[in-house]
Amino acid sequence: MDEIEQVKSKTDIVELIGQYVKLSKAGRNFKGLCPFHNEKSPSFVISPERQIWHCFGCNKGGDSISFVEEYDRIDFAEALKFLAQKAGVTLSGPVHKTEREKKKDSLYELNHLAQQFYSYLLTEHKVGKKALVYLTDERKLPLALIKKFGIGYAPTGENMLAQYLNKKKKYSLEDIIDAGLANQGRVVTDFFRGRVVFPIHDVRGNIIAFSGRGLDDQTFPKYVNTRETKLYRKSESLYGIFFAKEEIRTQKHAILVEGEFDVLTSFREGISNIVAVKGTALTLEQ
Ligand code: ZN
């Protein structure tokens, strides 16, 4: 049995999908509301015998790996890795990655490095002092919460982040721009400058974008978000989802709010099944 088959045979598809979709028994199968299209009566069916799923509404279907791919919007290699880890199967080598996947990996790495850079400036460096005081004194956010959510400060300089990522970490300017961290004008300039920055995570904890707030109410616009990139589709992301997902699963419902601070103050008060919509209208993907 090859590794893919091993992962599949050690994954119980009903248990897996049951973590995301409320299922009920229907004869030899299980059914529930399809997570991939909007419906009121269940046409999403799982066969435990054949270890497959199928939706008679939108016609999507497949095995446990394709469910994870579809649900988390990740590629085959990532889905396999995720399930292998859950099932305790050691993969012998890296699953072959395409150029597109390699590109995405480097954008994730760049976002991660940017977050560390911003976070260091906010919590350790004097340039972030004013921003830190704003968060802790004016907004009453505890330092532990600031660190948990990876909040940082983007300095006012023209391209301090881009310089750091390019000169010190050896990433190409093209990738830095493609990640949405800088703009190409006459010179390369950092996208976020003089702002508090909030990383936006996907459900698995990868940083897909940032949201930046001006330090005073004169800053215009008050909030800016990373433009849409290969990693970030505004209509599909929710601020706080990575930190809130367990509690949402437990409580079976989520509180939706509008802004980062609504999420953060709720977490401070111990309410953690809460997420913020990015953008104005709630979409089906969210
Ligand atoms: Zn469907």
Rg over CA atoms, rounded to whole Å, is 21 Å
Largest sheet: 5 strands, antiparallel
**What helical percentage do the residues reach?**
25-40%
Low-pLDDT parts are none
Number of strands: 14
- Mean pLDDT score: 92
Bound small molecules, which ones?
Answer: zinc ion
Count of discrete alpha- or pi-helical segments spanning 4 or more residues: 11
Sequence of secondary-structure elements: HHEEEEEHHHHHEHHEEEEEEHEHE
- The fraction of residues in strands falls at 15-25%
Spatial strand sequence of the major β-sheet: 1-2-3-4-5
The secondary structure category is: alpha+beta
From the spread of the alpha carbons, the general shape counts as: globular
Q: Tell me the distance between the termini.
A: 38 Å
List keywords for this structure.
single chain; 286 residues; alpha+beta; 5-stranded antiparallel β-sheet; 4-stranded antiparallel β-sheet; 11 helices; 14 strands; globular; binds zinc ion
Question: What do you see in this structure?
Answer:
39% of the residues lie in helices and 19% in strands. By secondary structure, the chain is of the alpha+beta class. A hairpin with a 2-residue loop joins β1 (23-26) and β2. α1 (3-10) crosses α4. The model has no long low-confidence stretch (mean pLDDT 92). Bound molecules: zinc ion. Zinc ion is lined by residues 34, 36-37, 44, 55, 57-58, 60.
